[in-house]
Specification:
The protein is of the alpha+beta class. The chain has one domain.
Length: 90
């Protein structure tokens, strides 16, 4: 599954995130689901699109932070699945 997101606003065609200077205005996200031995692996990749050198460097400098941020929601899910419980997550 792939999707592209771009920073945009109804007030202007494009805007830059005010808290991150030189942030890429567009990122292509690809999510891949792979099954092996009855287990599913989710791989998420983000690649800046149509960027300047400064925007690419800013994106790369933030990679560790993005990995931690995207991984966070999956930790409770992994714990829930490992517990063997069924039904609604609490």
């Amino acid at each position: 599954m792939s999707a592209s997101n771009a920073a945009s606003s109804s007030n202007a065609p494009e805007f830059v995130l005010t808290h991150v200077f030189d942030a890429p205005r567009e990122v292509l996200h690809t999510v891949t689901f792979t099954e092996r031995d009855s287990k599913t692996t989710v791989t998420m990749r983000g690649v800046p699109v149509n960027t300047t050198e400064a925007e690419r460097k800013t994106f790369e400098a933030g990679r560790d932070s993005m990995q931690k941020g995207f991984a966070g929601p999956f930790q409770p899910l992994a714990q829930y699945l490992a517990s063997g419980r069924t039904g609604k997550m609490s």
